[in-house]
Amino acid sequence: MSDGKRLAVLGAGAVGSSVVDLAAEYGHSVVAFADSSSASIDADGIDVAAALERKQADGVVGDDDPGAALDAEYDVLVEATPTTLGDAEPGFSHLETALERDRHVVLANKGPVAERYGDVRALERESEGEVRFEATVGGAIPIVSTVEDLSPSHVTAARGVLNGTANFILSRMAAEGIDYEHVLAEAQDLGVAEADPTFDVEGTDAALKCVILANVLSEGEREFTLSGADVEGITNVPGSALELAAEDGRTIRLVGEATREGIRVGPRLVPENAALAVTGTQNIVQLETTNAGQLNLSGRGAGGPETASAVLGDVGRLD
Amino acid sequence: MTSALESDSEADGDAERTGRSRGEIDDAERDPQPHTIRLELADEPGQLLAALEPISENGGNLLSIFHERGNVTPRGRIPVEVDVEATPNRFDAIVEALREEGVNVVQAGAEHYAEEVVVLLVGHLVDTDLSDTLRRVEQNPATSIADFSLNAPEGRSDTSSARLRIATRAGETAAALELVHEIAEEKDIHVVEPLAGGAV
Lengths: 319, 200
Known about the structure:
The complex is a heterodimer. Chain A is α/β, with parallel strands linked by helices. Chain A is built from 12 helices and 12 strands. The longest helix of chain A has 15 residues, at about 205-220. Chain B has 2 domains: about 30-110, ACT domain (Alpha-Beta Plaits); about 115-200, Alpha-Beta Plaits, CATH 3.30.70. Classes of the chains: A alpha/beta, B alpha+beta.
């Protein structure tokens, strides 16, 4: 276990708030916490409980300027603002600022490593700081660090179920024989699906995770972005198809595949009892390796404390 | 199981083979086909090599050998299964040469469909001429439809789903999927297929 770090946490959604809430449990302090309109900054450590309470009650985390959080005296910047595509802003600029100051960056935001992996690595090479991003793939499941331990050159492929919302919908449709619209409404009521579920049901979120894995596997020899991925969502999967699959001992899962050659995400037929046929919001990743056979890693792929645990695990791996 | 479909295809295939054996087409123009030969060998050194020589000498392309050393026949011989690719005439010559060498050929014949792949099709299947879709898969010499099931809960003019079990020759699964994708793209049908290489 490394020494306690001073964290600056950008983003006050489920993940950012959980990181702030749990940091002390892992021996770290929070010196800055910001959302898009406010910040709480204190070099001796902010009052975490007060900041989280104000976020709940008033929608602000403190009285400071959010821009000032980037200038605070932190060791590690935790970037947990919403994932954006294309230029990956403002997350990318946050990362750039921290690296230019020779600080470490831990990402929960997928944008920078999915859309600008080469730029991120180039900035990292010029900096004393390091970039880690375990939380961007599979929530609580240690996938990136496992690939790192195996060494990327010994992992030939990664595939898996990487979106809990889509998996919840497909497994409910199959189990209850109800159609897509009804299950989606139920998922929205339960908070499993967002009001606008496009990102999840069209496969974009799963594809971003696969893009990140493909970037890790190719170790900079080739850069992948979302635009090069072959992506199909689950909106075209009717109950009638799931019924036919079940008659044959199979089911349908939204499976993402990442190799050094490319990324493919789409609904696939898998045996009902297969490791990949996880149910509900569970996620799973299978790694094909040259010396270690096949590894299956499954668990919770989303959620505030779950994802924060991956963020804080990354913080613990930093020097 | 729609056995009618399968027996149709076998009948077509037989007719085709019979036609060829009448010598209407020169053997050199025919595509080599995979065949399986089951042999029984005495458990003595050099027997396997002796059995394989007639294959290459007669222009056969050896695809695989399955040598069941641990499995001895009641007559104390070792069963061996050999997959060979050859044109029909060459294949006949290979079997004849093996028998001349004293190798016990238990069974020899055109390999039937060795692998199968199950796919789901989703879309306006009936409106886009389902029979044509099936016929095109069936007409491909390397593929045959072993089983077909349609699920059209909204009626035949709306979106429906179908499950196709396609039997293919050894190593032809990827090509069969490509054919299905080609037809599906043309007809705006979605294909849900298994993962490559049987990964689960």
